[in-house]
Design a protein that fits this description.
246 residues
């Protein structure tokens, strides 16, 4: 078990990549704290983690609200005494072309995908530095590297996450805290549920493997980065896209 006895806090962990990551971490022996906005989905995710034999708990948290994030971190520290891994996975999309995008659409995505990542990372940074170890993993995207039509807000947030990762790896690395990012490509998650089949097929054709990724394939990379096997990986942005950008 690569994460045995590690305390892992995962945001957006009730579905998609976040849920797959929670389950993978549970399999690898971590005590998992499932954070999301939907109470019923949190309960279901916690139950699945416990079914795998892991310690698991859940908390409804809006990452845009700093008081909620601080309260979460305080509770986890009180219960476990430490936080070993933070996976900043929570994110949303509100797509529109530049000329059509509303300020509300822009602000909502930046608030969750960028400000929320900042809130969570800043909240765990002091405890991790104090214990002399920790791992912060940020969810970027291939869109955050190459851009994408109709995703001004999303691309900006994911570019920003890469900037966070590079900066924090320099600031926190000397204190024993590693910071890395994962940049998934097209992955079969609920976030794609509104996309027509014709468009999904076009997406598959952009990938040399000719398929979309599975959430579990992203979770595997998070598990590696969270483990001691990645002890010399810091400040990296790992693309997991099936080669779509080759």
């Amino acid at each position: 078990m690569r994460l045995k006895d590690k305390i892992a806090l995962i945001t957006g962990a009730a579905q998609g990549i976040g849920l797959a990551t929670a389950l993978k971490f549970a399999q690898e022996g971590a005590a998992v704290v499932v954070c999301d906005m939907r109470s019923d989905a949190i309960d279901a995710a916690v139950a699945r983690c416990r079914d795998l034999g892991a310690k698991a708990s859940g908390q409804r948290v809006d990452v845009t609200q700093r008081d909620q994030v601080d309260a979460l971190v305080a509770e986890v520290l009180q219960r476990h005494g430490r936080i070993d891994v933070l996976v900043n996975n929570a994110g949303i999309t509100k797509d529109a072309r530049l000329q059509k995008m509303t300020l509300q659409q822009f602000d909502a995505v930046i608030d969750v995908n960028l400000r929320g990542v900042f809130h969570c990372a800043q909240a765990v940074a002091d405890p991790m530095v104090a214990q002399g170890s920790g791992v912060i993993l940020n969810a970027s995207s291939v869109v955050g590297i190459y851009g994408n039509f109709g995703q001004t807000n999303y691309a900006a947030s994911k570019f920003g996450v890469i900037g966070f990762t590079k900066t924090w790896s320099r600031e926190l690395g000397p204190k024993g805290v590693r910071v890395n990012a994962v940049a998934p490509g097209f992955v079969e998650t609920p976030i794609l549920s509104t996309i027509p089949d014709k468009v999904l097929e076009q997406m598959r054709q952009q990938v040399p493997l000719r398929r979309l990724g599975r959430p579990e394939e992203i979770a595997n990379v998070y598990a590696f980065l969270a483990s001691d096997e990645a002890s010399y990986v810091n400040g990296a942005v790992i693309e997991v896209s099936g080669g779509m950008t080759v």
